[in-house]
Design a protein that fits this description.
alpha+beta; seven-stranded antiparallel sheet; 21% helix
């Protein structure tokens, strides 16, 4: 029950609180220069306390996660270099307890394009899935460590606050483009993360 309440409080507070100022960038995009007391903040305090530094219209800046073992290797070798590529997840938290993460294999600079996304749901939501579907989802309590997941934009105190919530979620990784292709070619595909070779 405690973990469920923590997850709910972490993921359902996307519009909690109030902001007092807005950056020059926000003003340029038609956002208010100041937010009156009592109005919702423009960022998620728990999952991204730094959101105030970004234009809130970007959306997918609620949480930034880096993780290896998220690209399909070209060989059966555990030393395949694709297994060591850190895939950047830029995530948005929604009011229904879910997150959607745009996935970039090269960062999120101005000209970088996402090649897929990870859909994240709570353990309770996972338990409602058909049994045949559950194989496509990986449990973050297990996979965060195996993927060497990190939160590069957060302090250690902030990480400690969100980890209990993130661990009790499941993710499904869907790619619409291979990292080596210039354009999306062929059909989208699902990566079974828990079946990927272990890495040191």
């Amino acid at each position: 029950m405690k973990s469920k309440m923590l997850l709910i409080s972490s993921l359902l507070s996307l519009t909690a609180g109030c902001a007092t100022t807005a950056t020059a960038t926000e003003a340029e995009h038609g956002q208010a220069k100041a937010t009156a007391v009592g109005q919702p903040k423009l960022y998620h305090e728990t999952l991204n306390p730094h959101q105030i530094e970004h234009p809130s219209h970007l959306g997918f800046n609620d949480l930034h996660i880096q993780a290896i073992r998220h690209l399909v290797p070209d060989t059966h070798s555990i030393h395949d270099p694709k297994l060591q590529v850190a895939v950047h997840h830029h995530c948005k938290a929604y009011d229904d307890d879910t997150l959607v993460c745009l996935m970039f294999h090269s960062g999120m600079k101005d000209q970088d394009k996402p090649i897929g996304f990870e859909y994240i749901i709570t353990t309770a939501q996972y338990n409602t899935l058909p049994e045949a579907e559950k194989h496509y989802w990986h449990y973050h309590k297990t996979e965060l460590a195996r993927a060497h997941a990190s939160f590069p934009d957060l302090t250690q105190e902030e990480i400690a606050k969100i980890l209990p919530a993130v661990r009790e979620t499941y993710g499904k990784v869907i790619y619409f483009q291979k990292p080596e292709d210039k354009y999306p070619l062929g059909e989208p595909y699902v990566v079974i993360v828990q079946d990927m070779p272990e890495q040191d």
